[in-house]
Design goal:
125 residues, mainly alpha, 76% helix, 0% strand
Length: 125
C-alpha cells in the first residue's frame, strides 16, 4: 500500500509540529531574565532565614493585600511580614498595658477584702 503525496506532506508537517512543541525555549528569550530554579531558591531562602508558611485567607482580604502590594510597590512576602510584625507589636503593647492594671487590681482586692472583714468583725463585737 503506497502513500499519496498529500499524506507524506501531512505526516512531515505533523512531525515538525510535534518537534516544535517539545523543543525548549530559545536562548535569547529566557536566559537573561532566568530566575534560580527551585533548589537554588530554597537554598537562598534558607540562608536568609525564610520559612515557607501557608494559610487560607478570605478572598476579600487577599484582594486588599494585592492592592496594597501595588500601592506600596513591594512584593507579597514583604508586605505580609511587615503587617504581621506590626500586628504582633501592637498586640504586645496592648497586653502590656492591660497586664499592669490587672496586677494592681489583684493586689488591691485582697486589701479591700481585709478591710471588709475587719469592718464586719468590728460590727459584730
Amino acid at each position: 500500500m503506497s502513500m499519496k503525496l498529500q499524506d507524506l506532506h501531512k505526516n512531515k508537517m505533523l512531525k515538525t509540529g510535534n518537534a516544535m512543541k517539545h523543543a525548549g525555549t530559545p536562548d535569547r528569550f529566557g536566559k537573561t531574565a532566568a530566575a534560580p530554579d527551585r533548589k537554588e531558591q530554597r537554598k537562598l531562602d534558607q540562608a536568609a532565614g525564610l520559612v515557607p508558611f501557608a494559610c487560607k485567607l478570605p478572598s476579600a482580604l487577599v484582594a486588599q493585600l494585592h492592592t496594597e502590594v501595588q500601592t506600596r510597590e513591594t512584593n507579597m512576602n514583604e508586605l505580609v511580614a511587615t503587617l504581621i510584625t506590626q500586628g504582633l507589636a501592637s498586640k504586645t503593647e496592648k497586653t502590656e498595658k492591660t497586664e499592669k492594671p490587672a496586677k494592681a487590681e489583684k493586689v488591691a482586692k485582697p486589701a479591700a477584702a481585709e478591710k471588709a472583714e475587719k469592718a464586719t468583725k468590728s460590727t459584730k463585737k
